[in-house]
Amino acid sequence: MSSPSLAVTRVLASSTKLLLLPVPLRRFPSRSIATTSTTRIKPSSLVRIAHSASNLRNVRMLAERKPFAPDFFLRQLFDEKSWTYTYLLADLTSKEAILIDPVLEQAPRDAKLIQELGLKLTYALNTHMHADHITGTGYLKQLLPGTVSVISEASGAKADKHLKDNEVVKFGRFEIKGLSTPGHTNGCMTYLVDEMGIAFTGDTLLIRGCGRTDFQEGDSRTLYKSVHERIFTLPDNYRLFPAHDYKGNMETSVAEEKQYNPRLTKDVDAFVEIMANLNLPYPKMIDKAVPANRECGLYDIPKE
To answer: How buried is 253 (Cβ within 10 angstroms: 0-12 exposed, 13-18 middle, 19+ buried)?
Structure first.
């Protein structure tokens, strides 16, 4: 008796949506891989089907991001010495703004940009107590009076405001939530703007990598748990913005990192082994940056 036809899905993509249509395939000859007692599929057909499924995942990975609201502003800034990204977010109606992970040497640049854009800096936040640069929060408090410095309560650093897990900071009509994601340091936080589908992961999760865990309260198992329970549980289409990148990448997504991160796609034991054998050099700035950042950037401010 001849084998019945096998129906698979054909994907038609347009710029706005995906349309799934059933497409009958021809009957396959007997020289194939048996899947049931009545249906056989060629190995090459399985490869094509798997490749189509992979392409569909990639299309969804790129096509389903939340659009920004017209009154929401995001600007990504860069410090080439420490490879740090600083993020300026604002409500364009109220003009209230926040700055995430400012760098001391770039504080004049950031203050000038904020003034040129007609914004008011309400909060300067750090994702954690950095070891590779001195934060610019203290200097920004001088340059833009009224700025409130913010860091997690668990960081051990001084600040005007300390955040607990799931606590919210508001700027205009928008709000940003601090998610506790320790492992790189005890005080690491991922900052989430749920409405826009974006998160700022600090050093906890980098693009195809993660922060090191061999100094300053680092713990590989804790970091693995933080990423898998607090970041990888966000919707796949959420865009992720790290505190650093060393290869020129600017952003990633939950779906990308869950599929392609070479460390965090492993099981926890394999991840711990990878992190234990990175053999990274001692951080150049740690002995200066950490004591300074405990004072939230009020230490070693340049003289005008």
So the answer is: buried
- Asked if 228 is an active-site residue, the reply is no
162 is catalytic: no
3-state SS, residue 251:
coil
Is residue 203 flagged as an active site residue?
A: yes
* Other CB atoms within 10 Å distance of the CB of residue 218: 20
Rg (CA), the chain: 24
To the query of whether residue 133 is one of the catalytic residues in this protein, the response is yes
Q: Are 214 and 257 in contact (CB under 8 A)?
A: no
Indicate which residue of 79, 91, 110, 128 is catalytic.
128
pLDDT (tens digit per residue) in 137-164: 999 999 999 999 999 999 999 999 999 9
Cβ proximity of 77 and 109 under 8 Å: yes
Q: Could you say which of 110, 130, 162, 219 is catalytic?
A: 130
Q: Is 51 a catalytic residue?
A: no
pLDDT tens digits, 243-282:
999 999 999 999 999 999 999 999 999 999 999 999 999 9
- Tell me if residue 88 falls in helix, strand or coil: strand
Q: What is the pTM of this model?
A: 0.81
Q: Which of 162, 184, 219, 245 is labelled catalytic? A: 184
Instruction: Please give the structure tokens belonging to residue 210.
Output: 């993660």
Tokens standing for 15? 């710029």
